[in-house]
Fold Glycoside hydrolase family 13 protein.
Amino acid sequence: MTPDTAVSAAIPATDAAAWWRHAVIYQVYPRSFADGDGDGMGDLAGVTGKLPYLHDLGVDAVWLSPFYTSPQADAGYDVSDYRDVDPRFGSLADAEQLVARAHELGIRVVVDLVPNHTSDEHAWFQAALAAGPGSPERARYIFRDGRGEHGELPPTNWRSVFGGSAWTRVTESGGEPGQWYLNLFDSKQPDLDWEHPEVREEFHAILRFWLDRGVDGFRVDVAHGLAKDPSFRDWDAHTEMISGDGEARPTNASPYWDQDGVHDIYRGWRRVLDSYNPEGDPQRDRILCAEAWVSPIERLVAYTRPDEMHQAFNFDFLDSPWRATDLVERITRSLEAAQSVGAPTTWVLSNHDVVRHATRLGYPVGSPRMNGIDATCPQPDADLGLRRARAATALMLALPGSAYLYQGEELGLPDHTTLPDELREDPAHHRTKGTPEAEIGRDGCRIPLPWVGGAPGNGFGPSERTWLPQPDAYAALAANLQAGKPGSTLELYRALLATRRELDLGVGVLHWQQGYGEDVVAVVNERGTDRLLVLANLGEEPVALPDGTEVVVASGPLTPEGLVPTDTTVWARTR
């Protein structure tokens, strides 16, 4: 790898116009986006009402986190009916209306799909409990007899991502202790057995159900978790969504992450999606995006081979320290790995499972990864975090490939870092509280959005109710107060997205630029004869732009002398 190697979005001539190769997709977390009925929880009607805002923002598509029927043990990632909408969020008719309205505005719709596990209230699992050991109903899930003289010990020592054992013992119909079922997450989320053909057929049918209603693709939850090592060997490492550390210990060393069997599953899914585009028109592609916390990145890009998924989130980029050398290395390696399979890189900085980048970048460089922040933690430098977050986003949106934004980041929203424990809902918090593996949880990044500063609930809905309380800082960051205000984070995002689209940055070729020092990320995005210099200054001293460049967008103000100050990214036209 050399810093002056040209790297691109790896667009084959056969599908150079495919929308998903360069799209900017906006994640909507429905319960926290907008409340249409005043009950304090966001809903599909609220999302539909805000689609003009997303159109004006300039995104190409929205990704909706789960809105299916669910007991909400894990905020909807515990699905009891994949073919209906939870009444908390509306109805199937509301979902169809949302898709139709989005398409009228030129916005595509990607929906979440949760295939690793169902809810324990799913009809299949209830039938499995009633049918008993050895039944066809239990074969759809991973049931095993326990170890020990009376089966009193779990089948393996696997731990749940949310803390505690990954196995739950059932009480059989006669009242006696029975078999154990696998739950890599909460005990209310039993893992499906993807070796069972009926499971595969059912999800093909679920894909078709939503494709028939016009959705444009699926973000696949825990995409690296469906296949398990058939030996069910013990595994002593701490269980996290990402359990590898690169070449030294790849993720697939675990018996339940990134097993090779997942790829045959997604080849079947790709055939289903491709059948909805028989003419092969790249503008009609329906897509799959993998949430796969996989390392090294060479294993991640295997999910995006031509007959599998279209996109896979680049969490290596999300996890990068705020150091120029780290960013250059990760960007280069990501693009080169994606080129090896002819795929785009899919950039992301925040989502509903991680601390928002406006908050985590407010800590000293090199701080350990956080699983949440509360009042007992050192508090971030909010101004520093927002300045770096704006610069990081400006760098990300200049890169070739696709990109995902998380709702509210365009407002510069931080996490709620002082949310009281008694208000938290994340099962990871409740399952680990008081244990050595205690987690604060993800509630802080899932706070309802502020739309109207100073209004009840900051305009989240027609009442003052919000299912989680908003921090005081949200009032001044409300969308209405930033719209049209020069220098606001909302207007920065609008400018970045408009310029990215105008200049086709998502399909450009990168050329690393030298001579700015090791604390600067400098690259030219080239499209034909057009050249855009992207310069991100992560050092302490201001940096001069080359003579003859014209600044197009900057993440923050330049110095009076026209220099690029620390923690600032500039887009400038160059010859």
Notes: The mean pLDDT is 95. The two ends are 26 Å apart (CA to CA). The first helix runs from residue 30 to 33. The longest strand covers residues 520-527.
